[in-house]
Design a protein that fits this description.
The protein is of the alpha/beta class and 489 residues long. It has a single domain, classed as TIM Barrel (Alpha-Beta Barrel), CATH 3.20.20.80. The protein contains 17 helices and 16 strands. An eight-stranded parallel β-barrel has the order 1-2-3-4-5-7-13-14, surrounded by five helices. Strands 6-8 form a two-stranded parallel ribbon. It has a two-stranded antiparallel sheet with strand order 9-10. Helix 4 packs parallel to helix 6, helix 10 packs across helix 13 and helix 14 packs parallel to helix 15. The protein is globular, with a radius of gyration of 21 Å. The chain starts with 10 loop residues before the first strand and ends with a helix. The model has no long low-confidence stretch (mean pLDDT 95).
Length: 489
């Protein structure tokens, strides 16, 4: 019997985002972004998502930008801006084949609509990409990862304004051109479906009445679909070898029972989640949106030619985050108990364990979703986020023992291989927060995902020195053996 391994050329690596990792929010010509207004959540609220998804208005945004006393950890992140060489050397030591990062749009165009790009910002990413390529690590670059220039919100009312399409396309063309010989893997919008949950995080939308407006949110999503398609077109024109993907927060949901009403509820949840990838991968709005939009009073204004643009320039591959699964029940009141998740709430699954933040741990669910997505789209898939947020302890000798993280990742990687055996075309795997970073939902550092520990607390205190966790050495062996060490036990 031959040894089990992952396919040759499989892209092992790790993932980060500029707004959570980079820091230096007011250095190098960078302008403020929507992420800079995110206040840290108190420890007793860490299992909630309300603060992350809460609507914002102009007054709140301006207050946050001027606030000198509030705690805004995403402004300093993990200081990758000053420590990128050290961090990339650690990734090289682990054997990374790829590293997912995002470009901060406001580091290139500080206000979002500047006539000329900020050369200092462009030069920074030149240096980062050069450092990655020195070690043979392929950059996987997200163009927009929850860090829209604040000027887009204040001056254009966010992505509901069609003019933002042209601003984004200009930004995309600028970086595609600048890095055409350094980057070939691109993602347009991170977890684009977060638009259906938070208009501010997903689309820099402001709601002066304090209530999220679904019509505005889905109109903004439409503009992002068009912008993504046009960016894909330009990326291929600048370098035909470029590969552009969309990125979805995957929310696999099981029917609570065999009651057909619960099964139908799970189908509805699937439609709500996969609407975003249906448009970007298949190139058109699915039929089920007609009823969904009608029942929710959502009206999409399309310009002439939009449908042709979506149909002509779909993405090359689909990427997604996977952290947990949920349960769908036609009458949620029958249960009454809820647990938090990746931008979602769900009743607990009695067959699964949960993390310290209440997220359901479901490795087999990853195999389920890989099979379903590949059956649905028949394009290459890429898992660009997956991981366990947990409390870690730095020992006196500088070691960090995290067997819980190793167990979590090993179980998911084994199920990935099962999916490949099932026939799924999987490009790679970049676990989230490969170096500890500030949490997207709660803005705390103590929710750690990384293979590398960062000596910083939730208030930003610490040396920011890096320490290798036990999982660092374990993942190095996984990559070095192309998975054989955990597939052939």
């Amino acid at each position: 019997m031959s040894e089990k391994v992952f396919p040759q050329g499989f892209l092992w690596g790790g993932a980060t985002a500029a707004n959570q990792f980079e820091g230096a929010w007011n250095e190098g010509g960078r302008g403020p972004a929507t992420s800079d207004t995110a206040v840290a959540v108190s420890p007793e609220d860490r299992k909630k998502i309300e603060e992350f998804a809460a609507p914002m208005n102009r007054e709140k945004v301006l207050f946050a930008l001027e606030d000198q006393e509030g705690l805004y950890p995403k402004r300093w992140g993990s200081d990758f801006y000053h420590r990128y060489k050290e961090d990339i050397a650690l990734y090289a030591e682990m054997g990374f084949k790829t590293f997912r990062l995002s470009i901060a749009w406001s580091r290139i165009f500080p206000n979002g609509d500047d006539a000329e790009p900020n050369e200092e910002g462009l030069a920074f990413y030149d240096a980062v990409f050069d450092e990655l390529l020195k070690y043979g690590i392929e950059p996987l670059v997200t163009l927009s990862h929850y860090e829209t220039p604040i000027g887009i919100a204040l001056n254009y009312d966010g992505w509901k304004n069609r003019k933002v399409i042209d601003l984004f396309v200009k930004y995309a063309e600028t970086v595609f051109t600048r890095y055409k010989d350094k980057v070939k893997y691109w993602l347009t919008f991170n977890e684009i479906n977060v638009m259906g949950i938070s208009g501010y995080v997903g689309g820099a939308l402001l709601f002066e009445d304090g209530k999220q407006n679904l019509s505005d949110m889905y109109q903004a999503a439409h503009h992002q679909f068009v912008a993504s398609a046009l960016a894909t077109k330009i990326a291929h024109e600048i370098n035909p070898e470029n590969k552009v993907g969309m990125m979805l927060a995957r929310m696999e949901s099981y029917a609570a029972t065999t009651n057909p009403l619960d099964v139908m509820e799970a189908i509805q949840a699937e439609h709500e989640n996969l609407f975003f990838s249906d448009v970007q991968v298949r190139g058109k709005y699915p039929a089920y949106t007609n009823r969904m939009f009608k029942e929710n009073n959502i009206e999409i204004q399309m310009a002439d030619g939009d449908e042709d643009i979506l149909a002509t320039y779909p993405v090359d591959f689909m990427s997604f985050s996977y952290y947990m699964t949920a349960i769908s029940r036609h009458n949620p009141a029958e249960n009454g108990e809820y647990t938090a998740g990746n931008f979602s709430l769900s009743e607990p699954n009695p067959y699964l364990e949960a993390s310290d933040w209440g997220w359901q741990i479901d490795p087999v669910g990853l195999r389920v979703t890989l099979n379903k997505l590949y059956d649905r789209y028949q394009v290459p898939l890429f898992i660009v986020e997956n991981g366990l947020g947990a409390f870690d302890t730095l020992e006196e000798d500088g070691s960090i023992h995290d067997p819980y993280r190793i167990d979590y990742l090993q179980a998911h990687i084994q199920q990935m291989h099962e999916a490949i055996e099932d026939g799924v075309e999987l490009m790679g795997y970049t676990p989230w927060g490969c170096t500890d970073l500030v949490s997207a939902s709660t803005s705390e550092m103590s929710k750690r995902y990384g293979f590398v520990y960062v000596d910083a607390d939730d208030q930003g205190n610490g040396s920011y020195d890096r320490y290798r966790k036990d999982s660092f050495f374990w993942y190095k062996d996984v990559i070095g053996s192309n998975g054989a060490n955990i597939l052939n036990d």
